[in-house]
Every structure is written in C-alpha cells, then in structure tokens.
Specification:
Elements (H helix, E strand, L loop, with lengths): L1 H10 L2 H8 L35 H5 L3 H7 L10 H4 L7 H11 L10 H13 L26 H5 E2 L2 E4 L9 E3 L7 E3 L10 H4 L15 H7 L1 H4 L4 H5 L13 H7 E8 L2 E8 L13 E9 L5 E9 L1 E5 L3 E6 L7 E5 L9 E9 L2 H12 L4 H16 L2 E9 L2
Parallel strand pairs: 2-4
Antiparallel strand pairs: 1-2, 3-4, 5-6, 6-11, 7-8, 7-12, 9-10, 12-13
Helix pairs in contact: 7-15, 14-15
The chain binds heme C (5 copies).
C-alpha cells in the first residue's frame, strides 16, 4: 500500500518531466507535452466510427487495418489495465491522472472528476479488450470511452486534428503532404528515432536511485553499441513498421536478444548467457525478474545438488528509494552462471531460465489485496494478479551429461 502511494507522489511532477524528456533532438516542439498538447479535435467523438475526426482506434482501422491488427495485441493497447485502474480509488482522480499521462494521455482520456474515475471500474471489468472487438462498424454495441484504448493511435499520431507520421516508405519527403484522407499528414523523421519513445520510457536524471532512474531505457540505449550503429528502438520493437511493440512478455522476442551456451569446465558446469541483440539492459526495468537454477541428478533421477541465481535490478523503499542490487546484463555483456564442484555420482546437470515479467507488480498486488479495498477495485486487482501469474514462462532449458 505504502509503496504504491509513494510511487504516486514520486510521479506527481510528471507533467513537467515529460517535456524535459522530449525537448531535445528536434522532436516536434511540445509534441509530448502531456497531456495539454494532446488535444485531438473534437469531443463529440465516438458516435459515428465513419467520421475521420473520430479518434477511436476502430475508426483508424477502417483505413489502417494492418496497424490496428498488430497494435491491438500490444501492451500499448492494454495500458489502461486492471492493475493500473484498480489502484486509483485509493489515490483519488487527480493523482490518477498523473499515471494516465503515460497510460492514456489524451485530453479526452483523462478524468474530469472522481465520479468519472469511479464509473470506469465496472466497465473495465466487463471490457478488458479496450476497443470494439473487431472494429465492426455496424456494431450496435455502445462504444467504450476512449481512455479504455490506452496508448492508442492518436496518442502518437494526432495533434490538434492533424495527423503526424514518418515519411512515406518510398521517399524521404518531409513536411505537410497532401493525401486522400484527413487533410493529408505531416511527415517527420522524428518518428524513426529513439527519442520519440522517451516521453514515456525515460525518467530524468533527477529521479535517479543509485545514479540511475527507475526508467533509464533511452540512456542505456545511448551508451550501447546499437546507438552508434544507428539501430533505434523502432528497429527492434517495430521492425518493418509493424505495431506489435513486443518486449519481455514475449518469449520469442526475448530469445531473439540472447545467446545461451552450456559447457563443462573442469569439475564445474557453466551456463553462459550473452546479451547479443538487446538495445538496453536486460531487463531494462526494475519490474521483471529472470531466475536461473541448476540441478545435479544421479542416474536414478535423484537431485544431489542445486544452485540458483537471478538477473534483476532490485529496489526497495526504506525512508527513500534504495537500490538493493543491480545484476542486469548490459548490451553485449556475457555472464557465466557457474556451479560448485560436481559430485562424483552425478549423471547429468540441468539448467533452467525462467522469466517473471511482472515480478514487482505481483508484490504490489498482493500488498493491496491484504488491505482494505473497494469491492470493484479488489476485483480488478485480483484479475491483475491472475493475469500477471499467467505471464510467467520458461525461456530456456539445457542439460549436460556426466560420464
Ligand atoms: C478514410 C480513411 C482513413 C482514416 C479513417 C484514417 N486514415 Fe490515416 N491515412 C489515410 C490515407 C489515405 C493516408 C495517406 C497515405 C499516403 O498518402 O501515403 C493516411 C495517412 C496517415 C498517416 C501517415 C502515414 C505515413 O506514411 O507516415 C498516419 C500516421 C495516419 N494516417 C494515422 C491515422 C490515424 C491515427 C487515424 C485515426 C485517428 C487515421 N489515420 C484515420 C486514410 C485514413
Ligand atoms: C513515465 C511514464 C509512466 C507513468 C507516469 C506511469 N507509468 Fe505505469 N508503466 C509505464 C511503463 C513504460 C510500463 C511498462 C514497463 C514496466 O513494467 O515498468 C508501466 C507498467 C505499469 C503497470 C504494469 C502493467 C499493467 O498495466 O498492468 C502498472 C500496474 C502500472 N504501470 C501502474 C502505474 C501507476 C499506478 C502509475 C501512477 C502512480 C503509473 N503506472 C505511472 C510507464 C508509466
Ligand atoms: C507508441 C506510439 C505509436 C502508437 C500507439 C501507434 N503508432 Fe503508428 N507509428 C509509430 C511510429 C514510431 C511509426 C514509424 C515507425 C518507423 O518508421 O519505423 C508509426 C508508423 C505508422 C504508420 C505508417 C506505416 C507505414 O507502413 O508506413 C501508420 C499508417 C500508423 N503508424 C498508423 C497507426 C495506427 C492506425 C495506430 C493505432 C492502431 C498506430 N499507428 C499506433 C508510433 C505509434
Ligand atoms: C537491438 C534491439 C533493441 C533495441 C535497439 C531496443 N530494444 Fe527494447 N527490447 C529488446 C528485446 C530483445 C527485449 C526483450 C528482452 C528484455 O526485456 O530486455 C526488449 C525489451 C524492452 C522492453 C520491455 C521491458 C523490460 O524490462 O525489458 C521495453 C519497455 C523496451 N524494450 C523499450 C525499448 C526502448 C524505449 C528502446 C529505445 C530506447 C529499445 N527498447 C531499444 C530489443 C531492443
Ligand atoms: C504515451 C506514452 C508512450 C509512448 C510515447 C511509448 N510508450 Fe511504450 N509503453 C507505454 C506504457 C504505459 C507501457 C506499459 C503498458 C502496460 O503494460 O500497461 C508501454 C510498454 C512498452 C513495451 C513493453 C512490452 C513488454 O513486454 O513489457 C515496449 C516494448 C514499448 N512500450 C516500446 C515502445 C517504443 C519502441 C516506443 C517508441 C516508438 C514507445 N513504446 C512509445 C507508454 C508509451
């Protein structure tokens, strides 16, 4: 409970901070001055999906089907989540808006008052998907309020009724381009740069704990070999401009970044893990945890020896945030996970690597559930905890045989 509150206090200066994070590198001025600048066009909004000034993702999907199909399975589409919203009643609507500046930042998405916030709880339980299921324009189903769509298309692409995007695929032309819909669009190369993601994925240095902010992804990237090679966030998270934004919750994505090597070295067994294609620390946030363990078996399958390690940045709040340890893998770094001497009657040694993407949040949810909560908020947090548990997966398993 305490932890969550302090998080809210820590973030309350966020509006200011986000401007700072996105003010250099020639990004459109104030593009991410959240939330004030993100007025799209109209509040009459959601009635007719066919209107081009409709900001709902289903409306964009009429003409941008491919982006919608990829985005709708992404974490961005589900950023207005049970784990987020379930915490709001205890924070009040004004502090909650400080969270929405990253999770659902359009002016139309923010809460006007406490009733507005409260009304959302039951709706979210009924509609965790966040948009009309398959962009069915003829559906008679009432549209969900736009905030349920989280980090939706307009958050990244619409300012004051104008569309902004990268240059067309076939040429480098920038500036205002005429097009067949919504008055054309403004093309800018800023969409192809890491700095575009900074507003929500980088805290300023003044929020550092032991020299490093809780979110330090863009800085980590700048220090890496990938920045000097010109590989931006989009190069790995939006290959060929696909809007899937895969990360630690996707096993194939994580495998694509790592290399595993098992070997015997004298009387010990070693698993060597190398971060070969991750443009920041693995993992970049303090919220996931990677567990490694090894077991030595005799020929009857009885376990004789066990070992355990973890890859994580651990922080805790004790009169201020403290870093307990930082055991993450930096880009291109290798680490050896080495057993003690293997006993004589061991027949084989197994190594396992398990990913717990939401390890930190599980603890937050368990703390919340142990205290008093509004019934609707409790249901959301119970769902968040169940979902977080389903996200755990085994990344790697390997075996060494002993003569
Ligand atoms: C009626 C069809 C239609 C709707 C609805 C529509 N668009 Fe477009 N959009 C277009 C067309 C046509 C273009 C121009 C493509 C070109 O000229 O290369 C375009 C271009 C764009 C671009 C620039 C693409 C690039 O190459 O950089 C973006 C970004 C964009 N739209 C976003 C949106 C968003 C966000 C929505 C919903 C809020 C939306 N559009 C709704 C038809 C539509
Ligand atoms: C600066 C942007 C930013 C702000 C402000 C922010 N978050 Fe987040 N949040 C993120 C990002 C990025 C992730 C995904 C990475 C991670 O797990 O840390 C995330 C993930 C989460 C998750 C886990 C995923 C999910 O949606 O269930 C929860 C819960 C959450 N945030 C709650 C909050 C709360 C509560 C606040 C306000 C006190 C808040 N966030 C403010 C950026 C932000
Ligand atoms: C988190 C920010 C973000 C969100 C959310 C987002 N986009 Fe994009 N979009 C981008 C970026 C960045 C690019 C350029 C990627 C690149 O050039 O590598 C892009 C590119 C595009 C393009 C040009 C695609 C092409 O192939 O040339 C269109 C069209 C588009 N987005 C539409 C949408 C629609 C529709 C949605 C919602 C379903 C959406 N975007 C959601 C950031 C976003
Ligand atoms: C060279 C490829 C590459 C680049 C460049 C890259 N990433 Fe990643 N990213 C990955 C891989 C692979 C994962 C999955 C492993 C992991 O979680 O670290 C990942 C995971 C993530 C996650 C999930 C959360 C977590 O704790 O790891 C976020 C958020 C993220 N990246 C954001 C970014 C941003 C923002 C940038 C640009 C500053 C960026 N990435 C640049 C490959 C890349
Ligand atoms: C308006 C704020 C915002 C912007 C801009 C933004 N993100 Fe995010 N991003 C979020 C939030 C919030 C989450 C966490 C969603 C959740 O799980 O609740 C997130 C989650 C992610 C994840 C997490 C995947 C995982 O498995 O945990 C990746 C990867 C990611 N973003 C990449 C990007 C990239 C690349 C860009 C720039 C092209 C970008 N984001 C721009 C707000 C943003």
């Amino acid at each position: 409970m305490k932890k969550v509150w302090l998080m809210a206090v820590m973030l309350s200066a966020m509006g200011l901070m986000l401007i700072a994070a996105s003010s250099n590198d020639g990004l459109l001025i104030n593009y991410f001055q959240l939330p004030q600048a993100i007025s799209t066009t109209t509040n009459k909004a959601h009635a007719d999906l066919r209107l081009v000034d409709n900001m709902r993702p289903e409306a964009c999907a009429q003409c941008h089907q491919a982006q919608f199909e990829a985005w709708k399975h992404s974490r961005h589409a589900h950023a207005y989540s049970p784990g987020l919203v379930g915490q709001f009643p205890s924070m009040g609507h004004s502090n909650s808006n400080d969270c929405l500046v990253c999770h659902a930042p359009l002016v139309q998405q923010l809460y006007r008052d406490a009733g507005d916030m409260q009304a959302t709880l039951a709706t979210l339980l009924r509609h965790p998907e966040g948009f009309s299921s398959d962009a069915d324009l003829d559906s008679k189903q009432a549209a969900l309020p736009l905030r349920h769509a989280g980090v939706t298309c307009a958050v990244c692409h619409v300012r004051n009724g104008q569309r902004f995007g990268p240059p067309r695929r076939n040429n480098d032309e920038v500036g205002h381009l005429n097009g067949a819909a919504h008055g054309g669009f403004t093309a800018t190369k800023d969409f192809e740069k890491s700095q575009f993601c900074a507003a929500c994925h980088q805290f300023p240095q003044s929020y550092a704990i032991h020299g490093k902010p809780l979110e330090n992804t863009v800085y980590e990237w700048k220090q890496s070999y990938f920045a000097s090679e010109g590989v931006q966030c989009q190069g790995c998270h939006m290959p060929d401009r696909v809007h899937a934004f895969k990360g630690i919750h996707d096993k194939q994505m994580v495998l694509s970044g790592l290399d595993f090597q098992l070997e015997k070295q004298g009387d010990v067994a070693v698993l060597k893990i190398t971060s070969k294609h991750i443009g920041h620390a693995f993992p970049t946030y303090v919220t996931p945890k990677v567990m490694i363990h090894a077991e030595a078996f005799n020929q009857h399958g009885v376990i004789l020896q066990t070992w355990q390690w973890e890859i994580v940045r651990k922080v805790a709040y004790e009169n201020g945030w403290k870093e307990i340890k930082d055991a993450r893998l930096m880009p291109n770094q290798s680490r050896m996970f080495t057993t003690d001497g293997i006993k004589g009657d061991v027949a084989f040694v197994k190594f396992y690597v398990d990913v717990i993407p939401d390890a930190f949040y599980k603890g937050v949810y368990q703390n919340l559930l142990a205290g008093d909560m509004q019934p609707a908020a409790r249901k959301l947090i119970q769902k968040a905890l169940a979902d977080a548990e389903k996200n755990d997966y085994r990344l790697f398993e390997g075996r060494l045989s002993y003569p």
